[in-house]
């Protein structure tokens, strides 16, 4: 893989053109090439364990709130409390990630997460758990995420360097989705069999294992970047950088629409399992597993990309929202589950594409701040979307809410494409390829070639 090209000057129209990241499509044997790096391999294994346990806790937490309160809105509030700190404090997390060693930051954040999971386990297993306990712990975990999310994103570069960065990002997303596929299914079984308290205990052990792994990494093999010096205006510098680069700006705008509407799927899946299909905790776990399975396929498919394009990001956004909207009024859970699988594919094609495009378009010295702004929108947007989607599901029905949650991102993707076309950065071409051996394409959105 070739390293990404140097950043072009702000305002350069070529910024919206495809960014070459490989000279040819990677061989199938290189799909997992970044795992050949020992440090990344250790990190990926611990990440998988942590994500499985995290999703076990998340499903148990949401279902427990639903059972304790009888309210989908309460589940939405839990989601909001977990993501609100990122919405409010996200940029400062990026400053911290640029200023201090990422490995140390992750050790601290995962240690706190282990303590929170332990507290949840004790409260749940002793029968003392109340909704307000979940709210408080969800908020503390949200505070941890403010630093953990940007530090984790940028730490991938420390582990693999720029050459394998894109592959490592895709594999990191694949690991996350594999965990998200396994975790909900295991959690659903666990809740039915012995109760959700054990999911919290397992997550506490997983966080502890992550801390142990971070201590085991070979520090002499890390591609560390010199910390950013403490200066005034670092947040403004990151914001100006984001706005000046069209790929970063439009990925962030798209992420906002997806986060607020489409990423509140746990709330919607709880509503469908409880009031539409009446399938209980097992059905809730199954629906989340279908989404995660599709997302895993989408993340693995993203390792085959040879170029990063805004049109690919918008295509993933359209597919994600489109399949969600199609699923709104299907007659049975089987058809709904199938459509959720395809929605999951679209979601990760969007998320990995946007994540990669933002990272390779950003100078490494400012990447923590830029990623924190992007993550503030992607994660923090769910703090707005969670309670909003929960309220809508209770008041206008889960099915109509799902239609809105999927339809708005589709309309937003179309609007962004129109704006880019009007600015001369993308154009729509209609063409017909009559030769039977060639692929037929009626419409293509491509970068507009500027004269001169």
TrEMBL record:
<feature type="transmembrane region" description="Helical">
    <location>
        <begin position="336"/>
        <end position="358"/>
    </location>
</feature>
<feature type="transmembrane region" description="Helical">
    <location>
        <begin position="42"/>
        <end position="60"/>
    </location>
</feature>
<feature type="region of interest" description="Disordered">
    <location>
        <begin position="1"/>
        <end position="20"/>
    </location>
</feature>
<dbReference type="InterPro" id="IPR010290">
    <property type="entry name" value="TM_effector"/>
</dbReference>
<dbReference type="Pfam" id="PF05977">
    <property type="entry name" value="MFS_3"/>
</dbReference>
<protein>
    <submittedName>
        <fullName>MFS family permease</fullName>
    </submittedName>
</protein>
<dbReference type="InterPro" id="IPR020846">
    <property type="entry name" value="MFS_dom"/>
</dbReference>
<keyword id="KW-1003">Cell membrane</keyword>
<dbReference type="GO" id="GO:0022857">
    <property type="term" value="F:transmembrane transporter activity"/>
</dbReference>
<feature type="transmembrane region" description="Helical">
    <location>
        <begin position="104"/>
        <end position="126"/>
    </location>
</feature>
<keyword id="KW-0812">Transmembrane</keyword>
<dbReference type="InterPro" id="IPR036259">
    <property type="entry name" value="MFS_trans_sf"/>
</dbReference>
<feature type="domain" description="Major facilitator superfamily (MFS) profile">
    <location>
        <begin position="34"/>
        <end position="424"/>
    </location>
</feature>
<feature type="transmembrane region" description="Helical">
    <location>
        <begin position="370"/>
        <end position="393"/>
    </location>
</feature>
<feature type="transmembrane region" description="Helical">
    <location>
        <begin position="281"/>
        <end position="301"/>
    </location>
</feature>
<feature type="transmembrane region" description="Helical">
    <location>
        <begin position="132"/>
        <end position="151"/>
    </location>
</feature>
<feature type="transmembrane region" description="Helical">
    <location>
        <begin position="313"/>
        <end position="330"/>
    </location>
</feature>
<keyword id="KW-0472">Membrane</keyword>
<keyword id="KW-0813">Transport</keyword>
<feature type="transmembrane region" description="Helical">
    <location>
        <begin position="72"/>
        <end position="92"/>
    </location>
</feature>
<feature type="transmembrane region" description="Helical">
    <location>
        <begin position="189"/>
        <end position="212"/>
    </location>
</feature>
<dbReference type="GO" id="GO:0005886">
    <property type="term" value="C:plasma membrane"/>
</dbReference>
<keyword id="KW-1133">Transmembrane helix</keyword>
<feature type="transmembrane region" description="Helical">
    <location>
        <begin position="248"/>
        <end position="269"/>
    </location>
</feature>
<feature type="transmembrane region" description="Helical">
    <location>
        <begin position="399"/>
        <end position="421"/>
    </location>
</feature>
């Amino acid at each position: 893989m070739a390293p990404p090209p140097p950043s072009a000057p702000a305002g350069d129209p070529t910024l919206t053109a495809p960014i070459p990241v490989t000279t040819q499509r990677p061989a199938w044997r290189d799909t997992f090439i970044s795992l050949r790096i020992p440090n990344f391999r250790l990190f990926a294994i611990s990440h998988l364990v942590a994500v499985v346990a995290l999703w076990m806790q998340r499903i148990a937490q949401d279902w427990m709130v639903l059972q304790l309160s009888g309210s989908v809105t309460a589940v939405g509030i839990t989601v909001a409390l977990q993501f609100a700190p990122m919405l409010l404090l996200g940029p400062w997390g990026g400053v911290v990630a640029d200023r201090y060693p990422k490995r140390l930051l992750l050790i601290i954040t995962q240690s706190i997460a282990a303590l929170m999971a332990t507290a949840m386990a004790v409260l749940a297993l002793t029968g003392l758990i109340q909704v307000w306990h979940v709210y408080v712990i969800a908020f503390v975990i949200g505070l941890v995420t403010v630093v953990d999310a940007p530090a984790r994103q940028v730490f991938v570069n420390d582990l693999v360097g720029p050459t394998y960065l894109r592959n490592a990002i895709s594999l990191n997303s694949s690991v996350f989705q594999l965990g998200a596929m396994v975790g909900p299914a295991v959690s659903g079984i666990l809740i039915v069999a012995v109760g959700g308290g054990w999911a919290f205990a397992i997550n506490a052990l997983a966080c502890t294992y992550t801390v142990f792994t971070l201590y085991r990494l070979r520090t002499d093999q890390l591609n560390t970047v010199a910390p950013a010096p403490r200066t005034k205006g670092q947040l403004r510098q990151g914001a100006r950088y984001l706005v000046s680069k069209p790929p970063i700006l439009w990925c962030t705008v798209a992420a906002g629409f997806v986060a607020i509407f489409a990423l509140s799927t746990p709330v919607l899946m709880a509503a469908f399992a409880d009031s539409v299909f009446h399938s209980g905790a097992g059905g809730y776990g199954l629906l989340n597993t279908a989404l995660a399975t599709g997302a895993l396929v989408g993340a693995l498919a993203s390792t085959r990309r040879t170029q990063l394009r805004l049109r690919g990001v918008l295509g993933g956004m359209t597919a994600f929202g489109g399949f969600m909207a199609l699923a709104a009024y299907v007659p049975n859970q089987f058809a709904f589950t199938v459509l959720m699988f395809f929605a999951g594919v679209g979601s990760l094609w969007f998320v990995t594409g946007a994540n990669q495009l933002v990272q390779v378009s950003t100078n490494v010295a400012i990447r923590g701040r830029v990623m924190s702004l992007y993550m503030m929108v992607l994660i923090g947007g769910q703090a707005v979307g969670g309670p909003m989607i929960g309220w809508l599901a209770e008041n206008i029905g889960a099915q109509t809410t799902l239609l809105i949650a999927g339809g708005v991102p589709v309309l937003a993707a179309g609007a962004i494409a129109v704006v880019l076309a009007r600015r001369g950065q993308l154009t729509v071409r209609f063409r017909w390829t009559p030769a039977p051996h060639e692929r037929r394409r009626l419409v293509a959105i491509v970068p507009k070639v500027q004269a001169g």
